[in-house]
Amino acid sequence: MQSIVEAYNNTSYRIAIPNEVMTLRPSDHSPSLDQFLTAGGWGSAAVITASNPRSIVLSHEDNVTANAVLRTVASEAGYRMYSAVGVGDDPKWEPEDSFLLCGIALQGALVIAVRFEQNAIAYHEINAKTAIELTDIFTRK
């Protein structure tokens, strides 16, 4: 199986925004996401999941529960969010339900990811390539 960082970089993040499903890929520009963020008055966004903390596969029910808590945390923090799914190129990786949090700064996104014991997030700033950003959980391994 490919390394975990390779897996993150070889993932498509499918995001359901009004009237469209867009796909984000690490290391790619996303003019459609740039346009969407600009229209909303946001300069950045992050794709974050609560599924499979520390890349340990949990049951579907446990992942649904964890993502419901993530939704509440992000909503209470005031972030506008949209449903997303991370789909790896490797068919051995199960798709993970996630959220696109709009207007979140990188450090804030990493704090939320660590709270849910995630190794990484996909982070996007307008006019830049989407990047995989590793959390302290991953770098402490």
Tell me what you see in this structure.
This protein is an alpha+beta fold and 141 residues long. The protein has one domain (4-139). It has helices at residues 4-9, 31-40, 60-76, 106-115, 136-139; strands spanning 11-17, 20-24, 44-48, 80-88, 96-102, 120-125, 131-134. Strands 2-1-4-5-3-6-7 form a seven-stranded antiparallel β-sheet, sandwiched between helices. The protein is globular and about 35 Å long.
Ranges with pLDDT <50 over ≥5 residues?
none
Question: Helical percent range?
Answer: 25-40%
Q: Which descriptor suits the 3D outline?
A: globular
Mean pLDDT: 95
Strand line-up in the sheet with most strands: 2-1-4-5-3-6-7
> How many separate structural domains?
1
List SSEs in N-to-C order: HEEHEHEEHEEH
Continuous helix count: 5
Strand segment count: 7
The separation of the N and C termini measures 18 Å
Strand content: 25-35%
What class, by secondary structure content? Answer: alpha+beta
Radius of gyration: 14 Å
How do the helices and strands line up, and which of them pair or pack?
Blueprint: H1 4-9, E1 11-17, E2 20-24, H2 31-40, E3 44-48, H3 60-76, E4 80-88, E5 96-102, H4 106-115, E6 120-125, E7 131-134, H5 136-139
Antiparallel strand pairs: 1-2, 1-4, 3-5, 3-6, 4-5, 6-7
